[in-house]
Amino acid sequence: MAKPPAKAGKSGSPSKGEPVYLAVGLLRRPHGVHGEILMEVYTDFPERLKDGSTVFLGGKHKPATIRQIRHHNDGLLLGFEGVETPESAGLLRNQMVYVKTSAQPALPAGQYYHYQVIGMTVVEDSGIELGRLTEIIETGANDVYVVTSDEGKELLLPSIEQVVLDVDVEANRMIVHLIPGLLDQEE
Predict the structure, then answer these.
(1) Rounded Cα–Cα distance for residues 75 and 159 (Å)
(2) Is residue 2 part of a domain?
(3) 24 and 43 in contact (C-beta within 8 Å)?
(4) How many CB atoms lie within 10 A of CB 126?
(5) Residues 6 or more apart in contact with residue 104 via CB below 8 angstroms
(6) Does 146 share its domain with 97?
(7) What does the pLDDT look like over 54-71, one tens digit per residue?
(8) Beta partners for 39?
(9) Within-domain flag for 47
(10) Alpha-carbon distance 153 to 10, whole Å?
């Protein structure tokens, strides 16, 4: 799933609560003499970024067109139109790279982008409201949802089908089943 956007810039549209932009990476440092810059990749879909794609840079979401893109170690080297020197690429250092939410690919049934589930009301299958999903921890095996109650207590729920029974994006509600041991967590 795509990683959540950084806490910079616009956070979303007022009508649906979805973000307008999603962070796909962070520009790190210039590379070479032709205006390329290394991007740390935040998206699970880097293949969607192509030559000629428009992305949005920084907190003001300034549009930029990718002139060239290529893999480099764990990141991507990006060249932008109008950025031809290491000095001009250096001016982009530490800026977030965004794409519009509407440009993201649809996910298979049962999978959601982080922005779609963070903030959801989490309800036990018996009807008891547990709190809101406030954070997602990526563990490698499966995500772990952090649910925070009104009292500030946190409950960690593994994102597995035995626990997460239903996700209703339109109703902003998640139904979960608490398997033995989940409520006995030390805080």
Answers:
(1) 28
(2) no
(3) yes
(4) 7
(5) 2, 22, 45, 48, 113
(6) no
(7) 999 999 999 999 999 999
(8) 27, 76
(9) yes
(10) 29
